[in-house]
Amino acid sequence: MHFRQETPADRAAVEAIHRTAFPTDDEADLVAALRESDAFVPELSIVAEDDGRIVGHVLFTEVTVAGTDAALTLAPVAVHPDRQGEGTGSRLIRHGLDACREAGYELVVLHGDPAFYGRFGFEPATPYGLEHPFDLPDEAFQVLWLVDDVAGRIDGRVTYDAAFGEL
Ligand SMILES: CC(C)(COP(=O)(O)OP(=O)(O)OC[C@H]1O[C@@H](n2cnc3c(N)ncnc32)[C@H](O)[C@@H]1OP(=O)(O)O)[C@@H](O)C(=O)NCCC(=O)NCCS
Fold first, then answer.
1. Where are the domains of the chain?
2. What pLDDT, on the 0 to 100 scale, is given for residue 166?
3. Which residue's CA is minimally distant from atom 30 of ligand 1?
4. What does the alpha-carbon distance between residue 85 and residue 136 come to, in Å, rounded to a whole number?
5. To test the ligand 1 pocket, which listed residue (46, 95, 109, 116) has its Cβ within 8 A of the most ligand atoms?
């Protein structure tokens, strides 16, 4: 198993992973739309490859928030259903977060299950003064600070790429 930046040749396999892992095509469509957007950061579209087969994908794209120009959101992440529960998703996310840090980003926000994302250090975002524009529970809105001591100067409403609004 190894983790690397997605290439154009991987696109169909990546979208197929999202189509099979999620109940609808929304996430596959989101990935396709984000690739065409200004929020896309090519080195932060990362695949898990095992023996020449793409088995997972995670995408980090840029968001806007007051106090920094180095903010990301993690969405979506998926592992092929016949390869879930083997630790691949966790390793893929950890690899991706290291890549975000190395690229100089300061925070990552996401919406997801705190029981899953807490293991990577994500914590509730609203107590930091961060807000999201979605009709989703605040408990699911989480942040990971990638750099020490930046939390105090970054707050307010997070603005997402228009592709998220098409979901
Ligand atoms: C979530 C996902 C990427 C995790 O990948 P994975 O390779 O199965 O994950 P790992 O083997 O590293 O970790 C498994 C853990 O994730 C948990 N988990 C898996 N899917 C989950 C989900 N949708 N929500 C919450 N927890 C989930 C498992 O219960 C397990 O927890 P445990 O370690 O406490 O037992 C994968 O299960 C997947 O593609 N799910 C469908 C798509 C999805 O829900 N994506 C995330 C949306 S926020």
1. 2-165
2. 58
3. 85
4. 26
5. 116
Q: Which of 77, 84, 88, 141 to mutate to test the pocket of ligand 1 (most atoms within 8 A of CB)?
A: 84
Ligand 1 centre from 139 Cα, in Å?
A: 18
What DSSP letter does each residue of 102-148 carry, written as one string? HTT--EEEEES-HHHHGGGT-EESGGGTEE--SSS-GGGEEEEESST
Residue 56: how many CB atoms within 10 A of its CB? Answer: 26
Give 164 Cα–ligand 1 centroid separation in angstroms. 21
Task: Name the architecture of domain 2-165.
Answer: 3-Layer(aba) Sandwich (3.40)
H/E element, 10 = none
Q: Mean pLDDT over residues 109-121, rounded?
A: 98
Tens digit of each residue's pLDDT (9 = 90 or more) over 76-94 = 999 999 999 999 999 999 9
Name the token pair of 19: 């189509």
pTM of the model: 0.96
